[in-house]
Specification:
7 strands, globular, 7-stranded mixed β-sheet, alpha/beta, single chain, about 40% helix, Spore Coat Polysaccharide Biosynthesis Protein SpsA, Chain A, about 190 residues, about 20% strand
Amino acid sequence: MTLVVVLVKGFEGAKTRLGPAVGAGRRRALARRYAARAMRAAGEGSLVVASSAEVAAMATQLGLEAILEAAPAGQNPAARRGIEEALRRGAGSVLLLSSDLPLVRRVVVKAMLERGARLETPAVLAAPATGRGGTNALFLKPPGAVGLHFGDNSLAAFEADARSRGVRFELFEAPELALDVDEPDDLERLTAVG
């Protein structure tokens, strides 16, 4: 079994790097919209690691289970919490999905899960982010196959970690998983995509 875990930051104060181009109200609305889209794309049976009660309530409204972080400390600790829950449930693999992906769709998440399932254990399948060398989705088989390195240049860190452990590392390149909205340039790219 694979557990899909959506990592969602609170909506208050969200997307601060968009500040030069977008007011606080619109940033909050974008964060809510993208989080809901990621939760729907993750599908039934998925888990949301939520850094606020509002996010947890949204997950519940969408029919997903949520774990509310007691003390939100960023994406890596949230991912660690999701992995711990996957292991507790006996999952053989986990897909960690960012929540700021305006183009993500269920069909793409399913395709990544199917490709990950075909990989021999141990394996890492990473969806690269556009720019900044980040990682927007990460399939780990088993759930603790590598350490957590989310952030700028995480893709190279995940690959180096996998190689140092003798773990197979592959890329899953999909436009729906590549574009995350963090900075004003990302909004321009989104507008260009349509």
